[in-house]
Specification:
alpha/beta, 3 helices, about 15% helix, five-stranded mixed sheet, single chain, Rossmann fold, UDP N-Acetylglucosamine Acyltransferase, domain 1, six-stranded parallel sheet, globular
Length: about 200
C-alpha cells in the first residue's frame, strides 16, 4: 500500500503537482487542504479542509507537500512548510519520471522536480523548491531553499541562486553568477548578476 500524501494549496500549481505525483506513483494522494477551499475537488481529489485542519489530519497521514505556487514572494510556501514540519509531517522529494536528475546531484526535502526538467551533475537544490517544467539546472549550480525556477528557465553552471528567489519562465543566467538574497528575475531576461570573483 502506498503512503498517503496531503497536498497543501489547491490552485493551479497544485493541479500540475498532482500530475507529477500520479506519474511518479510513489504516493496515494489523500486530498487537499487550502486556506480557502474553492470547490469540492480538484482533478478528482477531495478538499479535506483548511490549513487549520492539518493538525487533526496528521493522525491519518504522515506525508505532506506544499502545492502553493510562488511568484512575488516565497513567504506563503515557507510558512506552510514550517507549519507542516512542526506538526510532524514528512515532506518528501517528488521527481517526475519524465525529469532527469543526475545521481551526482542533490535535491532537498519538500522540493518538486516537474516534467522534463534537467538537474545536472553536482547541482544542489535546496528544500521546498519548485523546479518547474523544462527548467535546466546545470552542473555545480546551487539553488537555495524555497526557490521557484520557472518553466524553461536556465540556471547555468556554477550559478548560486539565493534562498527564496524566483526565476521567471525562459530566463537565463550567465554562468558562475550569484543572486543577492531573494532575487526576482523576470521572465525572458538574461541575468548577469554578480560573479563569485
Amino acid at each position: 500500500m502506498k503512503p498517503k500524501l496531503i497536498l497543501i494549496g489547491g490552485g493551479g500549481h497544485c493541479a500540475s503537482c498532482i500530475d507529477v505525483i500520479e506519474q511518479e506513483g510513489k504516493f496515494e494522494i489523500a486530498g487537499i487542504v487550502d486556506k480557502d477551499p474553492c470547490g469540492k475537488e480538484l482533478l478528482g481529489y477531495r478538499f479535506l479542509g483548511k490549513d487549520d485542519d492539518l493538525l487533526s489530519l496528521r493522525s491519518s497521514c504522515n506525508f505532506a507537500l506544499i502545492t502553493v505556487g510562488q511568484i512575488r514572494s516565497p513567504q506563503a510556501r515557507i510558512r506552510l512548510f514550517e507549519h507542516a514540519k512542526s506538526l510532524g509531517y514528512t515532506l518528501p522529494t517528488i521527481i517526475s519520471p519524465r525529469a532527469y536528475v543526475s545521481r551526482h546531484a542533490f535535491v532537498g526535502t519538500g522540493s518538486i522536480i516537474m516534467h522534463d526538467a534537467l538537474v545536472n551533475a553536482r547541482a544542489t537544490i535546496g528544500i521546498n523548491c519548485i523546479i518547474n517544467t523544462k527548467a535546466l539546472i546545470e552542473h555545480d549550480a546551487i539553488v537555495g531553499d524555497h526557490c521557484h525556477i520557472s518553466t524553461a528557465a536556465v540556471i547555468n553552471g556554477g550559478v548560486e541562486v539565493g534562498s527564496g528567489s524566483f526565476v521567471g519562465s525562459n530566463a537565463v543566467t550567465k554562468e558562475a553568477v550569484v543572486t543577492k538574497g531573494s532575487a526576482f528575475i523576470k521572465a525572458g531576461s538574461l541575468f548577469t548578476g554578480h560573479t563569485n570573483d
